[in-house]
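A reminder from the course coordinator: this example appears on the midterm review sheet, so study it carefully.

Given structure:
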C-alpha cells in the first residue's frame, strides 16, 4: 500500500484492466497496459 488513491477497473470498450491514480503533483495518471493475451 502506497497511500495513493488508486482505482482499478475493467474498461468497458476494450475489456482490459485500467488503473487511475492520483500523482504526487496532484494530477491524475491513467495506465492502460497493452498486454498480449495468454496463449
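Designed residues:
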Amino acid at each position: 500500500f502506497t497511500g495513493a488513491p488508486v482505482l482499478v477497473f475493467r474498461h468497458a470498450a476494450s475489456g482490459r484492466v485500467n488503473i487511475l491514480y492520483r500523482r504526487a503533483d496532484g494530477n491524475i495518471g491513467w495506465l492502460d497496459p497493452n498486454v498480449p493475451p495468454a496463449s
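The chain is about 0% helix and 40% strand. Residues 1-39 form a domain with the SHC Adaptor Protein fold (CATH 3.30.505).
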